[in-house]
User: Fold this.
Amino acid sequence: MRQSGPGIACGQPRIGVDVHVHRVANRWGYVQTAAPEKTMVALEAKLPPAYWVEINRLLVPFGKHICTFRLPHCSTCVVLDMCQQSGVTEHR
Assistant:
């Protein structure tokens, strides 16, 4: 089930995973998944529920503006030392 928005589905907290959350979590090496739906399951298995709703709000803008699909801004990224840069072939 693909979600976005506030992270509440059927009255239950869930991790909203869109393309940005999927890309960032995989690029960091925190999960290794092929689809956003699988990323949601993997993140929910790793993260404490207290972070489930907030993670989308934090990672979507990060994925849009810093950890972009093409030419991510690795040279100015504050979490570069913790990133595996999976799939990154070129960056700014």
Observations:
- The chain has a mean pLDDT of 90.
